[in-house]
Design a protein that fits this description.
Helix content: 10-25%
Distance between the termini: 34 Å
Largest sheet: 21 strands, mixed
Shape: globular
Number of helices: 2
Number of strands: 23
Length: about 290
């Protein structure tokens, strides 16, 4: 039987071959399997890609399958520099879609990363259903997670975030893009947060969800399928350090308790609406 040290060595050598083949084949796409040290135990996935469309699917497999493909390069436009395009038209393009992607497994913790800002990826990652996720993107793509049971943390900047059919907890933060989340089951006592600047925040909770909500939108509406108990705004007091004078103002967050209250649920956008929806599925799970 192959020991863990040899298994990790083989994964590393496989990644070197994947990188080299990406340089040779400009249209490179393919897949790689990452074995888990303890397939019967819960694992975690960490992804940090600068430019990518990232899709993560919870499945019945006992390893992690990464399907990768470079994003297509943008073609020259008619309004670009004519002289520059003329010079380029006299030459033959050598495509520069080389894959520079790293995947490492250590004690059921899988890390997938790329430091390239110029080369983007389209990734489909299949993981065991019982998996924690920490997915980070920045520019040029969306994040989609489906059918995972665990703690899910999603960070993006220019792109939509979707988390569908999640059992556990979710935190989702982006700047330009909407957030759509559907929770089948909720881990008891775990706070959650959903924040964007340009986009709707649309979250579906189990019908017997317990939580204390903090809600804020500057240029939109807050709509809820639940009958919540609203809390009065509380004055906030600040002290100016130099003069020791006090400033008191009313907090502009909307606060409400659902089914008696519980862990804090923050939902915030600036330019769009907040939707709080109700599902009829199973209610709670334990940690």
């Amino acid at each position: 039987m192959m020991n863990i040290k040899n298994m990790k060595t083989n994964i590393f050598l496989g990644l070197i071959m994947m990188f080299l083949s990406g340089i040779i084949n400009a249209q490179n796409k393919g897949e790689i399997n990452v074995s888990l040290s303890n397939p019967d135990s819960k694992g975690s996935l960490y992804v940090n890609i600068k430019r990518a469309n990232i899709k993560v699917q919870g499945t019945n497999r006992q390893d992690v399958l990464i399907q990768y493909e470079p994003m297509a390069l943008a073609e020259d436009c008619d309004s670009c520099d004519d002289d520059r395009n003329k010079r380029k038209s006299e030459l033959e393009r050598i495509s520069n879609n080389a894959v520079a992607l790293e995947a490492v497994e250590d004690n059921n913790k899988v890390r997938i990363s790329s430091d390239s800002w110029n080369k983007g990826f389209s990734l489909i990652i299949q993981v065991p259903r019982n998996f924690d996720l920490d997915i980070n993107g920045y520019d040029g793509g969306d994040i989609l997670v489906e059918n995972v049971k665990g703690e899910v943390a999603l960070q993006n900047y220019n792109g939509k975030i979707s988390a569908i059919g999640i059992s556990g907890s979710v935190s989702a933060n982006t700047y330009n893009g909407k957030i759509i989340v559907t929770l089948k089951e909720v881990t008891l006592g775990v706070p959650m947060a959903f924040n964007t600047y340009n986009g709707d925040v649309d979250v579906t909770f189990p019908k017997s969800m317990k939580g204390s909500f903090k809600l804020k939108t500057s240029r939109g509406s807050i709509l809820s399928a639940f009958d919540m108990e609203m809390r009065k705004p509380e004055p906030v007091e600040k002290t100016k350090n130099k003069s020791d004078t006090y400033k008191v103002y009313l907090n502009d967050w909307v606060k409400a308790d659902l089914n008696g209250g519980g862990p804090e649920i923050v939902m915030k956008t600036y330019n769009n609406d907040i939707y709080i929806r109700k599902s009829n599925t199973l209610e709670f799970i334990t940690r």
